[in-house]
Amino acid sequence: MKKLGRIVLIILLFVVIIIVDYLVIRHTHTWYELADVTDTGKVSITMDRDDVVEVTDIQRTEYNNENMLVINLKAVGKGNVNLTLKTGDPDYPETQRTFYVDSLGFVTEENYLGSLNDITIIRYEVLIICIIMIVNIYIKMRSISKEYRYSYRLMVYSGVIVFLVVTAVLWLIRILTEDFYTSTQLFTLYADIMYSFHVFALMVFPMIFILAIFLIISNIVLIRHEGRNVTNMLGIALGVLLVSMTAATWFAYSMLGTIIDVHSYRGMHIEYIVEAVIDVVLAYLECMMVGTTIWTLRAARHVPSFDKDYIIILGCSIRKDGTVTPLLRGRADRALWFARKQKESTGKDIIFVASGGQGDDEVVSEAEAIKRYLLESGVEPDHILLEDKSTTTYENMKFSYKLIREDYEKKTGTVKEVKAPEIVFSTTGYHVFRSGHIAVCQGIMTAGIGCRTKWYFYVNALIREFVANMNIERRKHIKHVAAIILIIAVMLAYSYRFNIL
Questions:
Q1: 253-310, pLDDT tens digit by residue?
Q2: Which string of b and e fits 465-477 if b means at least 16 CB within 10 Å?
Q3: Do residues 106 and 116 make contact, with C-beta atoms less than 8 angstroms apart?
Q4: What gap in Å lies between CA 56 and CA 58, rounded to an integer?
Q5: Quick check: 38 and 60 in contact, CB under 8 A?
Q6: Which residues fall within 8 angstroms of residue 3, CB to CB, at 6 or more apart?
Q7: Which of 42, 64, 85, 231 is least surrounded, with the fewest CB atoms within 10 Å of its CB?
Q8: Can you tell me the distance from the alpha carbon of 366 to that of 396, in angstroms, rounded to the nearest whole number?
């Protein structure tokens, strides 16, 4: 019901905007012409039809230290009309313009320098819509995070909010700094809409550039400590990719300039669509990276309530002698810390679930290595469950939950007669959000705690989590990007067809 109410409000908002635009913008038009004219009394305008528009006023002003004629027109009927401007100066050639008045009374000039009077109101409307979207998404994000903090939508919403905030600031600056030319010229409005992604990418570029350098440095340190492999070189590859994609806009412009005339009407539209595709993809990736980072860090710092029945320790690679690595020991120690704090706070014991199968190069399963470490740390054998079949995080959660349900049913009765067990999982900090998301996709309601790791490993791992998160919902991401590009393409196609940009 609430969703239906929001949809109705959005529809009403757009109806109001359309009505306001109809009442404010229609019927009038301003024709700007650079001309070295000092006496407007000598200026004359003739037209091939007198039933479409009429000239209401001719004024002279300065724009960029040049004289400009400002000719105000008023619509009186529907159709096309050709206007011829004569300045009275024999050295200044005649100027012709074609205007079109549609059935609603809107007047447009049929070239890419066309304008509509009072389109500043559209800029205010775009700004208001951005603010409404920011507030609405933030409220939805808060509501979702209270129910479950590992939802994929939280990552998307955070990235979108960052983009909308930057866009709103850009439009506000444009409103405060615009002059009479940018406040009416249609191409400035279209350019601002399409270049929101471009400007966002440019603004984020310094941060991305620094991040790229940091990624490369951290990966070099990581390779020195952990060895050279494809996974450890992921950060270097992504860092180079981000910088390359940011520079691709200028490269594309240069390449297009050698193939087509980008200053022509057709060439300008081709340039816009090529740059728009690059900028949309880059800005979208940046937004998702920001969203992933925000919720990964928040998930890593979160400590669930101390009322849990089971704690799953997610496995990872072990040493050749079957002992835990520092990374896996950190996960086990974090689980031991949680168990101790819960015992101190509530007096409630917790059951450990050691989860992880045996790799081809491992002498024992990861679960067995975890179990041995827990026993050495003083945990009683009857407080440990062994899940030694899983090979992925998805299987960690699936198999561990099945084991927990079976154990919980034995101890408390049938599942239908008791409440669901309270579960927490322990993993490395950067891995909490994605692990929680994988769990919730299987209907497993759990919470996570994260342990710390080396800084050089954390950065590379964070990038891996970003790539993994994007891959989990890759179809949705592709749809989002495709929808944005389609909207831009439709705008440009409409502009090209009706000569309004």
A1: 667 667 766 666 677 777 777 777 777 777 787 788 888 888 888 888 889 999 999 9
A2: bbeebbebbeeeb
A3: yes
A4: 7
A5: yes
A6: none
A7: 64
A8: 11
